[in-house]
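User: Before I run my own analysis I want an independent prediction to cross-check against. Here's the chain; please return only the structure tokens and, at the end, one sentence I can use as a sanity check.
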Amino acid sequence: MKPRDHAFHYASARARYEAWWRGGRLDRPPVTLYVERPGSVGPRSTHATLRERWLDPEFQVESAFAGLAASPALGDSVPCWMPNVGPDLTSTLFGAELVFGENTSWCQHTLPETADLERFIATPPDFSNPYWRTIEQMIALAADRFAGRFYVALPDLHGSFDMLAGLRGPENLCLDIVDAPDLVRRASLHAARAFVEAYRRLYAQLTALGQPSTTWCSYLHEGPAYIPSCDFWCLVSREIGEELITPSIEMEMAPLERSIFHLDGPQALQHVDTMLRLPGLTAVQWVAGAGHGPAANWIDLYRRCLRAGKAVQVLADDAADALAVLRALGPEGVWLTVYSPFRNAGLATEFLDEVHALSA
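Assistant: Structure tokens:
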């Protein structure tokens, strides 16, 4: 028997993801995996500050290229890079300044009082700020440098309530919901409109450069797709989530043909039914969080999502965890992502063969 070719092939991977988006599968589910890389690769930073390093498009793109070139692309692991200045990019559209750490960034709160939400509502998003300009420069430079060998992913965009939490602070926003719910509602819809504008601008730029839809969780789709989410709703009741937060999430999802909701942590589980009722939602990514894995612990939640007609992305601790979930759920509507990197490409190939066999 001719051995299977497990190298990444765009057409095959795209077809597997499209079948998955629709709740089905082709020969097997989509599989994302990683292979250990020996040593460090890429240019060495000589920047005076972390801020300079983060906001240097040439350095970031060259680092990304070196990493992608040193990493085998197997299965449906999209060889892509996401331009990134941290998770609060959308908050910078309203004046938030970013503080950079080694591996992430956070924003300084710029709306100290509840009444400042009125000023926020009256302010249009500023797409000329240095963080947004840096992201656009990274996208253009990466598309040119990668030259079709690798892909450029949509940046991480946080939605309305996470945007407001970045600008006000999560605790203050919780108090605002109690003290001025109508004002918060108006602010959230203004934030959602800014999110949609941000998404459309980036999608148009990437499409014009010949890039498919993908982002940090590396799905594939030829049309508009993204990851709706709301980490903030872990802090509020089911009723507040449904009545106050879902209208802005629905607005953010309106431009999308495909969507995978990022449900993050056990505190978010009270909102599962609300999430599953979102109009047009295609799929669910469940992130159990540290100490709450492996994925095989959450078979009932995956089944609940599948019964609701949503595909699922399974974030497995390792190969054994991924195979256990596959045996329990079957291959329909399941996308397997294995977090622990394989020691070499041979072991990754053996795992893909096992996924094929279990999907027969």
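Sanity check: The chain has 13 helices and ten strands.
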